[in-house]
Each structure stands twice: as C-alpha cells, then as structure tokens.
C-alpha cells in the first residue's frame, strides 16, 4: 500500500477500507508514514468526512495502536463517563460515588487539567493524603470492594491518537467530527470501558459552539460505540456558563460534597442525575432511566452517596473528614477578593471560557503542562444567568495564594454581563440513546 494512493482516494471522496485504515494507523504510529502525508489525509477527511464503517475502523485502529487496559478482574459492567470538557465541571467527583452507591462499578481513569479546563485528578488531590497511584491489581481490588476507585492515567494508551491530535492541532483539522469522535471513543475503549456515557458540551466554554454540531458529534460517537460492542448513550448539555458555582480544585471538592448531601447547585445536581441515570441503567442497576434516577435521588437524600464518597476517599489515603468539615480539611487561599457589581441588573451571560481563564490566572489551572497549580485557588460565582444583582453586591469571590490583581477582578466583572432581562440557557439540550 502507498499512502499517496489513500490520500488521493479520500481526496476524491471515496471510502477507505478497514485494511487501508489499519495499515495507515499502524505505519503512522511507527513513524513510517510522515506527518506531512498524515496532515494531507486529515485535511481530506476534514472536507470529505468518513462513513460509519470508516469511523469504527479508525477508532479500533487507534485503540489497537497501544496498550489496552484489562478490567476483566472487576465484576459487573464497567461504565465510563466522558465529558468533552468544560469549566467548573465537577460531575465526575459526584458521579463516581453516586453511581457506585447503586451497585454499579466505577473504575475511573482520569487525567490532570490543562488550560482553562480542570482535571479530576487535580481536584481529588486537593483532599490531603489522596493518591491516585494504584497498581492494576489494587485498582481492581478497590473497585470490587467499594464499587469505586480513581486511578491516574498510565501505560501507552492510543499513541496514534496522541500523534494525530497534536498534528491536527497545528494543521487546522481539529474540528472534524469523524476525527474528534474516533479520538474520544478510542481513548475510552482502550481504558477498558464496557459501556460509555458521553457528556457533549455546547456553548462558549465548549469545543462545539452550537447545538447541531454537538448533536452530530454525539450521534456519531453513539453509533461508533454500538458498532464496536460498547453500549453508548449521550447527553448534550450547556457550557455557555460554568456548571455549578465553584471553579477551582478545592472549591469544586466542596461543591461536590454539598451536592452529594443533596444541597448542591441545581444545574450541577440535575446534570449528575441525568448522566448518572444513563450510567446506572447501562450498568444494569435499573430497568429504565426513570427507575435509575429514582435510585440515585434516594441515595442523595438518605446519605448513602456521601457514605460511599467517604469510603472512596479513605480507601485512597485521603482524609475522609473532609465530608463533614470541608473548610477545615481543604486548602484555604491566603487571599480573597470580591467582584462588586457596578450597576443593578439581571445576569444575562457568564462567558464560561473567559471565567475559566480567570480561574486559571488565579492559579487553579495550568498554562503549560509543567505549571504548578494552587489547589486553593479559583472563584465562586454568587450569581448565575437569570439572577438579579444590586449595585454594590458581590458577584463572585476570588481565591488565590498569590496577590489578586485588579486585572483579574476586571476580567471577571467584564464576563458576567448584566442586562435588563435574561434568557436562562437550557441545561440539557438532548439525550441520545
Ligand atoms: N478531545 C479529544 O480527545 N479529541 C479530539 O479530537 C477533540 C477533543
Ligand atoms: Ca462547579
């Protein structure tokens, strides 16, 4: 086979065969196919798309390009959740113990945050003592015992995706549905998921800025999942404003604890119930999504979800008293500053990505992979879209161990827009089964 022939084939809009895709991904991973040829292919795919067979073949070729995690030592259907990234998205911290509390095993492999999007591992490490370095055996034992454990990413998973994603980033080919869908699905499948729940975000803080694009991506991923034997469901949710009120690692742990007590922000709680229902249903805990939701609601209200959270934290070395005394246990910032409203009005927009960047500037996120993060840093929004604000009232509190500059205060003020009226954004645009 010659790469030039495959590039021309795709350039003419013809589908590639499974053998051709397997060959191309293998040779590209090995370094035999150079970046310039793969860039041309990515651009041809960008313009000419791929059909269902090609998308599934590309996904599985990337899965097979590296290690695959074997979770067979864990009993039950292993359901994984993936979010396409957002600001202040605390859902994993809540869903892991919540879904485990209805008996579905949650064997979660998570990463660290980069840029204005946070990572679950960083958030968990805000709990003193919590560690995510577990051997494969310890990880499986913990999930079998407690139904939940979170481990840091290890092994050489989907090296083809790593290379291709980096290449797409510099060749204008990131925003291609078949390439995004196969990239995300290959990582989930390689990490051992039997079933997958996808939270596809849309809005300013998300990758897919509009709902139609998000829906198309979600449908594509659900089709890929089913075609390779992984039952998959998706939710399209809003990321025009940050989720919940807290953005920042320690602050989000506290918000997650509140939510597990049934006292969390409305939007965050609702999204967790919708995603959790899909996870519990796919994991076999309920016969329908409605039944799954009732089970989850019950465990938020009767304290069971919080009990599982404590057990989970303790089993991974963390101080479980964080659940009862979050302010005493979590790192506290040396400096705080209020963002005061200069006029009266109704919040009409909170630009998620810009607020995420402000949180990063306070120290909550990494500008580069090497940056150190401040686990106490971030911001707490006292207002969400639709809330009334009086002149002189605080819109948000900023937290940092660094001195907080007026520039950051101004940045937050600028991106919490006030108007005479506001339209409250839809939280869940669609559910794809
Ligand atoms: N996230 C991924 O993992 N891959 C993409 O291609 C885009 C977003
Ligand atoms: Ca939040």
Short description:
By secondary structure, this protein is α/β, with parallel strands linked by helices. It has helices at 3-11, 18-30, 35-48, 52-63, 91-100, 120-124, 136-146, 159-169, 177-190, 211-227, 249-260, 266-282, 289-301, 304-315, 326-329, 352-364, 406-415, and strands spanning 79-83, 106-110, 148-152, 195-202, 231-238, 246-247, 335-340, 345-350, 378-381, 388-389, 394-400, 416-419, 428-432. It starts with a helix and ends with a strand.
Describe this protein's structure.
A 4-stranded mixed β-sheet has the order 1-4-5-13, sandwiched between helices. Strands 6-9-11-7 form a 4-stranded antiparallel β-sheet, with helices on both faces. It is globular and about 70 Å long. The two termini are 39 Å apart. Helix 10 links the parallel strand 4 and strand 5. It contains 17 helices and 13 strands. The longest helix has 17 residues. By secondary structure, it is of the alpha/beta class.
Keywords:
433 residues, alpha/beta, four-stranded mixed sheet, four-stranded antiparallel sheet, 17 helices, 15% strand, binds uracil, binds calcium ion
Low-confidence stretches: none
Number-wise, the strands total 13
Give the overall form: globular
The biggest beta sheet, please?
A: 4 strands, mixed
Helix content: 40-55%
Oligomer: single chain
Q: What small molecules are bound in this structure?
A: uracil, calcium ion
Note the gap between the termini. Answer: 39 Å
Mean pLDDT: 95
Count of discrete alpha- or pi-helical segments spanning 4 or more residues: 17
- Proportion in β-strands: 15-25%
Q: Strands of the largest sheet, in order across it? A: 1-4-5-13
Would you tell me the structural class of the helices and strands?
Answer: alpha/beta
Report the radius of gyration as a whole number of Å: 22 Å
SSE string: HHHHEHEHHEHHEHEEHHHHHEEHEEEHEE
